Task: structure prediction
Amino acid sequence: MPCQRRCGHQWWHGKVRDRGFRVTAGREAIIEALSSTQDHLSAEDIYGKIHDRHPNVGPTTIYRTLDMLVQAGLVFKFDFGDGKARYELREGPKGAHHHHHLVCTSCKRIIDYTDFIDEELELLKRTEVGLSKRYGFRIEDHLIQFYGLCAECLRS
Amino acid sequence: MPCQRRCGHQWWHGKVRDRGFRVTAGREAIIEALSSTQDHLSAEDIYGKIHDRHPNVGPTTIYRTLDMLVQAGLVFKFDFGDGKARYELREGPKGAHHHHHLVCTSCKRIIDYTDFIDEELELLKRTEVGLSKRYGFRIEDHLIQFYGLCAECLRS
DNA sequence: GTTTATGCAAACTGTTTGCATTGCT
DNA sequence: AGCAATGCAAACAGTTTGCATAAAC
Result:
């Protein structure tokens, strides 16, 4: 199905088709929901976001689509310890956008940060080379999260 | 309850009592299970490990105890994406032992590593200072995980 | 036309909760 | 004695699965 809109919403079609998956209206809606926000959406969040325009897309499809997108490498699945999985687009029309997370252990707020990434990237690169030599491990991704108390919670 | 054994199994008693929690046989068994292995035990794993000697300790107690230990800062709770929480002692009789994880996305194997920790700690320290200035966030802990394919899975 | 995706309902898994009882301090 | 911890059974939440139908290729 060609893109219905004149904008570039089909950047991911190739990546999905290349892996033998099909492009459907439901999947379009789910990717759009993910790319329309900076938040870390749960499956339920996505359901809420798209249910108005796509009342036919149910939770099952969302879970199955998210699994597929994780498998295809388009989406990252996170766990922040609140019992539900959260999903984030790994790349957009403009390419990959990498960041790490600050998790407030009190109010569960999540702050994305991209500062200091340069130093971190340098260390990560070195670490990855070292680890692959030492353990024969091929590293494809990483997760860095800091836990603590956010400004709001420190105040009270 | 003073330690029944002549060894140093009571190193954590103070930390638990200081926070207003009590020392019980079940909790002793759970901490012993955690300290007797390098593995990342799930609640069910712990149940299996202690059920012979402590048939009276049920799953509920294990969950509640683990929550308490996480709260008391003695245990770290992880999620490796296999649907069950996993727990690891944060410190032992000899003090804290910090490490990070390599997660094989194919076979789900987890490899602990402590290499490069010094460099990492240095960077983390700098990052933490920067983040606390920028976001007013007080960082108390961090999680670093690398994802990829282990040597075994690369071979096949 | 063939194969993959979907929706529904029901099943499943890990975890949590209410309440009466036990046990630490 | 007083209050925290436990066990049991039942409840719960998020997620997964089987199967018939619909849609993409």
Q: What stands out?
A: Chain B touches chain A at residues 77, 79, 81, 102, 104-105, 111, 113, 115-116, 119-120, 123, 126-128, 130-131, 134-151, 154 (CB under 8 Å). The CA atoms of residues 13 and 66 of chain B lie 15 Å apart. Residues 1-8 of chain B have pLDDT under 50 and may be disordered.
